[in-house]
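Colleagues,

For the teaching module next term, I've prepared a clean inverse folding example: a structure given as tokens, and then the sequence designed for it. I'd like students to try predicting residues themselves before seeing the answer, so please don't circulate the second half yet.
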């Protein structure tokens, strides 16, 4: 009877752990759907999509329990849910810095999302030069018999920020987290170069936006004159008149 009780108890724990991990998977699915909707809206309506790439990942149970051990937390699902906020993670890569803040604003405006943490490592980079915008959001997940409020970590970066962070991560683990001081200084310098590139590209982005607004204003003037957008026809008519072509 003792063995039967242990097996039943083990099965119950396994089911509860499975439900626990599924909730985080469903939260990622919900966030992915929301981001895809934004991407489609930009593509079909605004004719500009600021989102370059979207990646998501779910920590494995082994990785979760390793973090529990490092932090000295209780080995309970309640403690894990309360203290480990990056079980479900999403990374959004954008074209320009302004896109990062625009997307973060759109996410924050979703009625069923609550912002738990907001860390701006773009305005305030980490000492090693790392830049990104981090958000911890809470999203409701509806199971068959309950509603769960699940945390998802969202990182929003430019392409340059993501490129630097990816290489820094590889170097960090190649040297077993003991990076030589000279290399740390080089990494900091390259982070500054990446930030400079982002700022230059942001300037170009703003200039293009101004040019587009100017063109739109010119089109409105032509429309108000009854000419519409057919600038080519207007030019042809002018040339014909000047050359005396009938």
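(Answer key — instructors only)
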């Amino acid at each position: 009877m003792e063995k039967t009780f242990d097996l039943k108890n083990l099965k119950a724990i396994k089911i509860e752990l499975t439900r626990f991990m599924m909730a985080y998977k469903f939260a990622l699915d919900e966030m992915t759907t929301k981001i895809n909707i934004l991407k489609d809206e930009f593509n079909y309506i605004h004719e500009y999509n600021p989102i370059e790439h979207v990646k998501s990942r779910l920590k494995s149970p082994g990785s979760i329990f390793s973090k529990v051990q490092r932090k000295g937390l209780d080995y309970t699902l309640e403690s894990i849910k309360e203290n480990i906020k990056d079980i479900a993670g999403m990374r959004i890569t954008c074209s320009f810095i302004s896109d990062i803040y625009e997307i973060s604003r759109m996410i924050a405006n979703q009625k069923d999302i609550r912002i738990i943490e907001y860390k701006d490592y773009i305005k305030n980079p980490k000492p090693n030069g790392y830049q990104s915008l981090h958000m911890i959001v809470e999203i409701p997940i509806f199971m068959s018999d309950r509603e769960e409020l699940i945390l998802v970590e969202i990182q929003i970066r430019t392409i340059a920020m993501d490129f630097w962070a990816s290489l820094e991560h590889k170097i960090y683990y190649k040297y077993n987290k003991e990076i030589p001081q000279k290399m740390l200084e080089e990494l900091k310098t390259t982070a500054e170069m990446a930030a400079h590139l982002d700022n230059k590209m942001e300037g170009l982005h703003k200039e293009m936006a101004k040019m587009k607004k100017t063109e739109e204003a010119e089109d409105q003037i032509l429309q108000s004159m009854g000419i519409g957008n057919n600038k080519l026809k207007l030019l042809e008519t002018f040339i014909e008149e000047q050359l005396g072509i009938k």
